[in-house]
Amino acid sequence: MTEAQRDLGRRWFEQVWNHGRRDAIAEMAAPDAVIHDGETVTVGLGALYSFFDRMTAAFSEMHVNVEDCIAEGDKLCVRWECTGRHTGDGLGIAPTGKTFHITGISIMRLADMMFVEAWQNWDMLGMMEQIKGAGKSATYIAAS
Predict the structure, then answer these.
(1) Distance set, CA 95 to CA 23, 27, 37, 51 (Å)
(2) Closest CA to 91 of 118, 59, 69, 115
(3) pTM here?
(4) 31, burial (CB in 10 Å: exposed 0-12, middle 13-18, buried 19+)
(5) Pick the CATH number of 2-142 from 3.40.30.10, 3.10.450.50, 1.10.110.30, 3.30.70.3270
(6) What b-and-e string marks burial along 59-76, b requiring 16 or more CB atoms within 10 Å of the CB?
(7) Which has the closest alpha carbon to 83: 102, 106, 108?
(8) CA 137, CA 132: separation in Å to the nearest integer?
(9) What is the pLDDT, as a whole number, of residue 90?
(10) Domain residues of the chain, as ranges?
(11) To the nearest whole percent, how much of the chain has pLDDT over 70?
């Protein structure tokens, strides 16, 4: 099952983020999936859709490249990098047109080949500095 788990991680980033397939979220995440992102906890498909909508409203040309996928037991660890351009107001700030390049790691717990829980850590501050300028806060993204 390890290769199937790694494939699920790759498909998540490819389908949801690179192809912008909002409906792929329900194909790969359990209805009550939980994502821990710093102090923010996102629960359920509705909240996942809201996060997806904010990010895709804020950024165009988004591309996630999966660098590593490691699976063991019911856990999957994905190390990734993402590029994009800030072209919309989905973060609550005027679009700057600037590009960004960030890295992150997502650890997912799987059940029945669906994501049921995830913990992620990514460079929100670095992204905000790249699109707004040094010293700006990254709290715009975490707010729900």
Answers:
(1) 26, 31, 24, 18
(2) 59
(3) 0.86
(4) exposed
(5) 3.10.450.50
(6) beebebebeebebeeeeb
(7) 102
(8) 9
(9) 83
(10) 2-142
(11) 92
